[in-house]
Design brief:
It holds the Pfam family DUF6597. Keywords: DNA-binding, Transcription, Transcription regulation. The protein is α+β, with helices and mostly antiparallel strands. The protein has 13 helices and 8 strands. The protein folds into 2 domains: 193 residues, no CATH class; 110 residues, Arc Repressor Mutant, subunit A.
Length: 316
């Protein structure tokens, strides 16, 4: 669930990137979101299909907690009995703590549940049915380790009971689901996480946040050694940092940032020249874009663009 609901306007820690700040050589600072709930778009492969069927909001975390939580998100859906709605997402490099309830099991887990979602390296697919609701905390890079002591990489491509990592998570589940307003649910999550904040911040968490923000925003970064040099790290130290605190390699982050931009650019202009798009986003040529895009999205960029054009045509 987290992977498609996390697709809010900012991708991972790349809020700046989604606001047109994909500028070479600029390492944006990771900042806490603010303001009311906002609609989602970035990362959902076919927002025109899912937008009408669920409500999605995004909310800021409390001061202090915001150092570890990029934002809270909430989603609800209520479909007629006979209707189902598939949704596909190209996930962002983030872990999530969620409290979920639904008419049917989600992620192979009986509902209700409190869960931790690791970073998904593949396309996320889910089919909505019946009714359900989720409130989640999108954790900043390094936050899971800071809050629980656990490394991020064993959770990659996994969903586990939150109780495995957060004592008291079942009580949190019951408390959150008893509340009616998103803001109150977020406040309960704030209190739960505030009680687990480390006494001394780990400087590696700030380093991981800076690396992820930079890589997801700067398309001039095409090699791991470039990222390491930009942050004053050895390649080995960088690889250890991203694996332990984010859950994936620096190379994966570079590729995922480019793929996120390719999806966003094709959604904005399904008729874009794919060769020019490939070179602009850092691929050697269109063939390399097609290989990476197909592996991640499940269809070639040309086929994906055709599906977007077809969806944009008015029905007759």
């Amino acid at each position: 669930m987290a992977s498609w609901t996390e697709a809010t306007r900012g991708a991972g820690t790349d809020d700046a990137a989604s606001d047109g700040a994909r500028q070479p050589g600029v390492a944006p600072a990771a900042t806490a979101p603010s303001g009311p709930a906002v609609p989602a778009a970035r990362g959902i492969l076919h927002p025109e299909l899912v937008g009408p069927v669920f409500r999605l909001g995004r909310y800021p975390a409390a001061p202090g907690v915001a150092d570890y939580v990029e934002h809270y998100w909430a989603v609800e859906w209520d479909l007629p009995t006979e209707r189902t709605q598939p949704s596909d997402v190209l996930s962002h490099p983030a872990l999530h703590l969620t409290v979920e309830d639904a008419d049917s099991p989600q992620h192979g887990v009986a509902m209700p549940a409190a869960l931790v979602h690791g970073v998904l390296t593949r396309r996320f697919e889910i089919t909505l049915r019946g009714s359900g609701r989720v409130i989640g905390a999108k954790l900043r890079p390094g936050a899971l380790t800071a809050l629980t002591g656990a490394p991020a990489h064993p959770l990659c491509d996994r969903v586990v009971p939150a109780l495995d990592l957060f004592p008291g998570a079942d009580a949190l589940r019951d408390e959150v689901l008893a509340l009616a307003r998103d803001e109150d649910r977020c406040a309960a999550l704030d209190a739960f996480l505030a009680a687990r904040l480390p006494a001394t911040p780990d400087p590696r968490c700030a380093a991981a946040r800076d690396v992820v923000a930079h890589v997801m925003a700067d398309r001039s970064l095409t090699r791991v050694d470039q990222v390491a040099a930009a942050h004053g790290l050895t390649v080995r130290t960088l690889q250890r940092l991203t694996r332990e605190l984010v859950g994936v390699s620096a190379k994966w982050l570079i590729r995922r940032g480019r793929l996120q931009d390719a999806v966003a650019d094709l959604q904005a202009d399904p008729g874009a020249d794919l060769g020019a798009l490939a070179v602009r986003l850092g691929w050697y040529d269109q063939a390399h874009l097609t290989r990476d895009f197909t592996a991640a999205v499940g269809s070639s960029p040309a086929r994906y663009a055709r599906s977007l054009r077809a969806a944009a045509r008015p029905e007759h």
